[in-house]
Amino acid sequence: MLKALAYIFGFLLLGELITYFFEIPIAGNILGMFLIFLALRLKIIKLQNVKPASDKLIKYLVLFFIPYGVGLMVYFEIIADYWLPISVAVIASTVITLYISAIIIEKFGK
Amino acid sequence: MQEFFQLPIFGVFISLIAFAGARKLQKKFNYALLTPVLVAIVFIICFLLIFNIDFEDYNRGGKFISFFLGPSVVALGVFFYEKYEEVKQNLKVFLLSVAVGGISGVLTVIIFLLLLKVPDFIIESLAAKSVTTPIAIEITKLTNGIPEITAGLVIAVGIFGNAFGPFILKKLGIKSKIAIGTALGTAAHGIGTARAFEESKLAGVYSGLAMCVNGIITALITPYLLQLFLGSFP
């Protein structure tokens, strides 16, 4: 578990390091996700070396964003003024997104 | 008493207890809108309001919990490696469907919000509304939006997809389970994926992978699309 966690943190650090030095507009953790996938594909690291930690992190993913959700209370009055346009735009966009991705794979997938 | 609530352990403890309690509640009633993350957030907000505690004080502990979002995104890369074999035969169509769906998700929400004359900082906070919360938060930080608004709305989108996604898709004539899974992961991230697993195991895997792929695509294109439409992002 400790080793697995060190690998995950290591790839996060690597991602942050690259974005820091090259000033590319992508978050370090997203780069870290891409790099760890690549490292697994190229067999630089083994799945069983990282799986214990990654499974646990994914299992509790929703717990980790609760504090951000609570932070919405600070902005509640600001967005309350725009609740109707926000709801309309977000719901319409979500339905379009759902339909477009579903219809492509339904028509052309196996 | 205010000093007590400023101790980091308060924020950590109430987050854990609220989440554990909310999960118990969902197991008991199994109702879509009782999704644990929503119940936990509403409970904590009410608690803070009732006892007149500042969000900043709560977040002294809360930030120890949200720190783990960073490593969790890296963990999604491991999940993707583990599962992508299962979508291999459909890989090209799958990637196309997530890419086109994901890009239209960002485009349409920016255009609709612009048409409805919503202020720029809200548009910047909502452009990445379809992707998993930790990635959406990172995108919002890069585009000068407000991450807390992003988190709240992203969770709402997930709950909407979870509660109504399969129903809407079936009404629109979608029959394939993997199409429903891919759509839920693309449009409604992890909370939608939870619903996709209820449709079928394979639908769930497609959904989880769609969530990862759309996270990357949306992270890559959102800063540029916002710059194109708002012209303000550096």
From TrEMBL, chain A:
Spans traversing the lipid bilayer: 5-22, 28-45, 57-76, 82-105
Primary site of residence: membrane
Keywords: Cell membrane, Membrane, Transmembrane, Transmembrane helix
GO CC aspect terms: plasma membrane
UniProt topology in membrane: Multi-pass membrane protein
One Pfam family this sequence matches: LrgA
InterPro entries (UniProt xref): LrgA/CidA
Source species, domain of life: Bacteria
Localization terms from the record: Cell membrane
Keyword presence, Transmembrane: yes
UniProt name for this protein: Holin-like protein
Automatic annotation (TrEMBL), chain B:
Keyword terms: Membrane, Transmembrane, Transmembrane helix
Membrane-spanning intervals of the chain: 6-22, 29-52, 64-81, 93-116, 149-169, 205-226
Chief place of localization: membrane
Compartment list: Membrane
Keyword Ion transport: no
Keyword Transmembrane appears in the UniProt entry: yes
Superkingdom: Bacteria
Bilayer topology: Multi-pass membrane protein
GO cellular component, one term: membrane
UniProt cross-references to Pfam families, sorted A to Z: LrgB
PANTHER family the record matches: PLASTIDAL GLYCOLATE_GLYCERATE TRANSLOCATOR 1, CHLOROPLASTIC, PUTATIVE SEROTONIN TRANSPORTER
The protein, known as: TIGR00659 family protein
